[in-house]
Amino acid sequence: MILKIINATEARVGTNILLEKEPYTVKKIDISKTGKHGHAKARIEAVGIMSGQKKVFVTPGHDRYEVPLVDKRKGQVLSIGDKVSVMDLENFETLEIACPEDVKKELEENCNVEYWNVSEKKIIRRKL
Q1: Mean of pLDDT over the chain
Q2: Where a domain ends, among 68, 84, 119?
Q3: In this structure, what CATH number is given to the domain that contains residue 116?
């Protein structure tokens, strides 16, 4: 679900944006001044929320980007395998969620976690 649309120059550190249908978090942004005949340029460094992949790109300041809605929820770990089985603590729904390896090492059964639902994709972010 899309929350809103912003120009590249409106992005700030910590803003989530969609690049090529994947959610990214802006880690650094540099905006150049306009030239004699040109437009402002924005150099953006972003890290993928799901993949952790770093992306650096330069874009015109008037380019528009979608800001996804990030739904942060709490759950309880039921079992750990390739994917982690989590029960949502609000509606008691059972979900199979992807988890980064560094977070998976900290998890054990019956512990509480925070998971994010971004553009209908879910990922475990941290142990509570």
Answers
A1: 88
A2: 68
A3: 2.40.50.140
What is the extent of the structural domain holding 53?
Answer: 2-68
Shared domain for 43 and 64, answered yes or no, is yes
- CA pseudo-torsion sign 97, 99, 105, 111: negative
Q: Which residues pair with 37 in a beta bridge?
A: none
How do residues 8-46 score in pLDDT, each as one tens digit? 988 999 999 998 888 999 999 999 888 777 788 999 999
In the predicted structure, residue 62 carries a pLDDT above the cut 80: yes
Task: Give the end of a domain, one of 68, 94, 109.
Answer: 68
- The DSSP secondary structure of the chain, one letter per residue, reads -EEEEEEGGG--TT-EEEETTEEEEEEEEEEPPP-SS---EEEEEEEETTT--EEEEEEETT-EEEEE-EEEEEEEEEEESSSEEEEETTT--EEEEB--HHHHTT--TT-EEEEEEETTEEEEEEE-
Cross-strand partners of 72? 116
- Could you tell me the pTM of the whole model? 0.80
